[in-house]
Amino acid sequence: MDTLELINGFRKFFGEGGQPCHLYFAPGRVNLIGEHTDYNGGYVLPVSIHLGTYLAVRISGRDEFALRSLQFKDGGALTRPGIRNKTISGWMTYPAGILNEFFDCGVDIPGIEMLFGGNIPLGSGLSSSASIEMVTAFALNELLGLKWPATKLIMLAQHAENHYVGMNCGIMDQFAVAMGSPERAIFLNCSTLEYESVPADMGDAVLIVTDSRKSRSLTQSAYNARRSECENALMHLRKGKPADNLSGYTTVEFERLKHLIPNETLLRRARHVITENDRVFRCVEALRNGSQNRFGELMYESHVSLRDDYEVSCDELDILVEESMDCPGVFGSRMTGAGFGGCTVTLVMRDQAPAFMTKLRNHYFRRAGLEPGFYPVDSSRRLEKLAVVPSCR
Ligand code: GLA
């Protein structure tokens, strides 16, 4: 996928001439640690990746919003009432949700033509949806000369995902896609949105994303259910100490107060969130000290907590993590993203990475019957405008 393919695709769908065509790119993201903490006011450590979403936009002057994709067959022209009434399904829900947010803010958007193209494997937990949302918001902001700050666009995209798409997600994905920069990880406090850009230098080790190719199912309902469980657990802990969210408790406080949670499942959910926050801090410290061993141990601990306490892993992800333990040169591995399928992320010695991928592929195929996908993490891209093509010629 490149800009030439996008321009050619744009000509095919919408024809040449007219206003200039503007090209944008938004990356995807992989979260190194800090899973299911964002909507609990906690800490996360994502990096943006080179896989992402391309968008070509042109003002058409027609009273409609034409959405097309190089990846998906469905697409078409939406009207403002159609967007307002949510008569949209599939991938178009994401850009439509953003358009709807701009309408809510009183922005008068002229008719436009938009062509999306991307290379993030779908449903893999690498934030293809946040990438589509952010590229749309960024493009509209730029094209219409609104000059809204990045944080406004991030909040607006999260709001669209929560209220238009119906996924009650936290802020991590939109934030990572918008603020990610080459070779840096984002150490973000999701309560205050204060963040530090930490050098993601892994020394002689590399990060590899492995796609389990297990299609995710029931993610939205199970995800929203976890959120409610966390709110429930918080209600009980508050009887011992007031706090705005689960991240308002240290691991020591949790040990002291956990008897207040009468239900074993709720207790495990809270324990994951509170210990995971602690692991994010320790991971950032390991990164700063260049301690690959410590970083890897924390990745494994995070996976166990997500598997046993938070119960968002699945057999395929567990097999990938378990098998990685037997591969020479591997420091650690864990599921990344919402879970229930999708990807793992693994820290492995650079010179052992090819052997790791071969061995893991064979063992995973034997046990899970699926061919995994591998993506060495390359954080060279960021959210940006790429070019203006006059008359799309
Ligand atoms: C999804 C959500 C994020 C976050 C992760 C889990 O990616 O969109 O907000 O909650 O799951 O860490």
CATH topology of the largest domain: Alpha-Beta Plaits
Largest sheet properties: 6 strands, mixed
- Class from helix and strand fractions: alpha+beta
What ions, cofactors and ligands are bound? alpha-D-galactopyranose
C-alpha end-to-end distance: 19 Å
CATH C-level class of the largest domain is Alpha Beta
Low-confidence stretches: none
Per DSSP, the total helix count is 12
Write down the overall geometry.
globular
Tally of individual domains:
2
CATH H-tier superfamily of the largest domain: GHMP kinase, C-terminal domain
In the CATH hierarchy, what is the architecture of the largest domain at level 2? Answer: 2-Layer Sandwich
What is the strand content? 15-25%
**Order of adjacent strands in the largest pleated sheet:** 5-4-6-3-1-13
Folded structure, characterized:
This protein is α+β, with helices and mostly antiparallel strands and 393 residues long. The chain has two domains: 3-30 and 50-180 and 381-392, Ribosomal Protein S5, domain 2, CATH 3.30.230; 205-376, 2-Layer Sandwich (Alpha-Beta Plaits), CATH 3.30.70. It has twelve helices and 13 strands. The protein has helices spanning 3-14, 80-84, 93-104, 128-143, 150-165, 172-179, 219-237, 251-257, 264-288, 292-309, 315-324, 353-368; strands spanning 21-31, 43-44, 46-59, 65-69, 76-78, 112-118, 184-189, 195-199, 205-211, 330-336, 343-349, 373-376, 384-389. Strands 5-4-6-3-1-13 form a six-stranded mixed β-sheet, with helices on both faces. A four-stranded antiparallel β-sheet has the order 10-11-9-12. The longest helix has 25 residues, at 264-288. The model has no long low-confidence stretch (mean pLDDT 95). Alpha-D-galactopyranose (GLA) binds at residues 31, 35-36, 38-39, 169-170, 172-173, 337-338.
